Amino acid sequence: MKLSELGEIGFLKKIEAFLPLSDKSVLIGIGDDAAAVRVSKGRMLLATTDLLTEGIHFDLRYAPFYQLGAKALLVNISDIAAMGGIPRYALIAIAVPDNIKVAELNELYRGIKKTASSYKVSIIGGDTSASKKGLMINITLLGEMQEKFVVKRNGARAGDKIFVTGTLGDSSAGIELLKKGEMKGSFIKRHLMPAPRVKEALFIAQNRLATSMIDISDGLSTDLNHICRMSGVGAVIYEEKIPISAGLRKTRLKRLPLHYALSGGEDYELLFTVKEENVKKMYSAILKNRLSAAIIGEITERKKGILLVDSKGGQRPLLPTGFEHFKS
Ligand code: MG
Ligand code: MG
Ligand code: MG
After folding, report:
1. pTM
2. Considering every ligand atom, which ligand is closest to the CA of 50?
3. Cβ proximity of 83 and 33 under 8 Å
4. Cα of 313 from ligand 3 centre, angstroms
5. What percent of the chain clears pLDDT 90, i.e. is strictly above it?
């Protein structure tokens, strides 16, 4: 069987079944934004890793080395944030083909260093290797938090409101512009240097406002699907409520703005669900500028599926059209 027939989720399910967990200190294993293990009473260690492969995740024609290094760390910081955790320690493994110059690697590590210091992350180790083909960067990030504040993907229940921070779609519009030869602008900046919502996620988690949370790395449609699958629920999303930046609304691109917001990915905004009784608290936090977030829909019973409602009230299934590996 080919991996493309199994798909990324199918492959992950197989690994999860093959490597069952029996250690009671492991609170969250495979399948969330980060794993969580209890290191002492009430204290959790979070762990996440991301492998960035040249030609799959980045293209050296568009991605400057400094930004590439920064982004490799930023995407992991976003995963720790999505659990409600505080990013702390990173290990950096890199496989380098011989066409890469030392000066370029210096730039890559300068991007990592600057990001680490902005987010108070310590680089504590890693590994290096030659590569026959293509540059690979793998960062493992450890974080910490109190157990009582952990927010998983599986806690959404029917009736919860669905929130999203910031705006969606700019990052994937940025890819399109980079491919057209543009070098600068807000979309490209958002694509090359995402801004993970660490402060917002901590606020949400420490005030126990969310029943589930995920960072939008694969696209709203796909990441909402992850929450619904893991929580055993359905959802309804209102097209007009999806936050899209003024810039994206007025820029002429190949597709309509909604396409980038639903399928684009790499926004690194937070998608989270809030119980009805906590919605007021969320609004008051938004009014006090603690965070920028909007309700885009609500969680429903699983049997209702995941629906997208357009401005005229028409409904259609919202399929996961975001990024997936091993797709044929
Ligand atoms: Mg994630
Ligand atoms: Mg990660
Ligand atoms: Mg990931």
Report:
1. 0.94
2. 2
3. yes
4. 34
5. 91
